DNA sequence: TCAATGTAGTTGCAATTGCAACGATATGCC
DNA sequence: GGCATATCGTTGCAATTGCAACTACATTGA
């Protein structure tokens, strides 16, 4: 069954699961919120004024919008994020990271970064990181072209 | 914030999500079961006699045991898998793929393989696949050593 | 022998996710 | 303008997942 080709993919999936699982474990052990919160907070903090439109944040994180809605619900309930609405486009909704959100993100970052370094980055030869990163970017980008946004009739 | 180092990881996560999402989309479109079923069926079919112990299969797939229990429940209900028990160790339970399971796996494989090829493999230069695969294997392996199995008191 | 501890698999329940559909706007076209 | 169509964000409900506890069996060591 294609002796070694799809093996890269299988290993990819396994590596993803094991690293994520370990990050979750260490965060929980430290009494911190789950992995998904970090990504969302960073997605906002890296945006202009710590703010992004909902659908844009969903795209950045590559998660579904209805899931983002409820993730932001949880973050908002904990005071880590604030919602607001646009004057221009009546449909638009924004989420912004709060000061408390920034503090928490930094705290999570310590565990997050060290775990990724230890379990993931350290196994990739430095001179391969660029090639690796490029390939992954092409992958994600093309995957989105191929289907993820087709729902929105971007092509077809 | 570490300008480009963890970027590999972010891209890794995004690539994973987008490819998985697209696989799920195409499987559903073809009226086939979700991605997880494929992996489980292949995990069994690739084992001796198409059979594995439950906890072994969970390790191969890098998923939690309680999730495997219920995944196998679903597969069994559809006649794709059969459970059996060991004579020797009274705790042991096995799962085996059935003929129907093999047929379904092959059907899913067509969509699965072409999607992975198109969205993932084709973006990795052939001469980098080995390095890529090796790095991923180290990653997954070490992650397991580091924590995943610690629950079972393998060290510490 | 038998208590203490470890392992395998499962289950109840709560949290999260996926799907389909909705209400509210916005845009294109006549 | 006004209708058809598209987008945005959300919600109800069903399916899946995560956590903690439990049953059953195995192993260890006094």
From TrEMBL, chains A, B:
Q: Does the keyword Transcription apply?
A: yes
Show where the HTH marR-type domain sits. 1-141
Source species, domain of life: Bacteria
Q: Name one GO molecular function term.
A: DNA-binding transcription factor activity
Name the species this protein comes from: Pseudomonas fildesensis
InterPro entries per UniProt:
HTH_MarR-typ (IPR000835), MarR/SlyA-like (IPR039422), Tscrpt_reg_MarR-type_CS (IPR023187), WH-like_DNA-bd_sf (IPR036388), WH_DNA-bd_sf (IPR036390)
- State what protein this is by name: MarR family transcriptional regulator
Q: Does the keyword Acyltransferase apply?
A: no
Q: Which keywords does this chain's UniProt record carry?
A: DNA-binding, Transcription, Transcription regulation
Q: Which PROSITE patterns match?
A: HTH_MARR_1 (PS01117), HTH_MARR_2 (PS50995)
Q: Which GO terms describe its biological process?
A: response to stress
A single Pfam family, by name?
MarR_2
């Amino acid at each position: 069954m294609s002796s070694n080709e799809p093996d890269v993919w299988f290993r990819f999936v396994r590596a993803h699961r094991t690293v994520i699982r370990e990050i979750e474990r260490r965060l929980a052990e430290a009494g911190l919120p789950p992995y998904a919160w970090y990504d969302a907070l960073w997605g906002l903090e890296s945006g202009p004024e710590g703010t992004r439109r909902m659908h844009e944040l969903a795209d950045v994180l590559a998660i579904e919008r209805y899931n983002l809605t409820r993730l932001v619900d949880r973050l908002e309930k904990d005071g880590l994020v604030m919602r607001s609405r646009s004057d221009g486009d009546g449909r638009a909704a924004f989420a912004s990271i709060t000061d408390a959100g920034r503090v928490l993100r930094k705290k999570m970052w310590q565990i997050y970064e060290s775990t990724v370094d230890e379990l993931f980055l350290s196994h990739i030869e430095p001179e391969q990181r660029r090639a690796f990163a490029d390939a992954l970017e092409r992958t994600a980008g093309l995957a989105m072209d191929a289907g993820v946004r087709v729902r929105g009739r971007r092509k077809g």
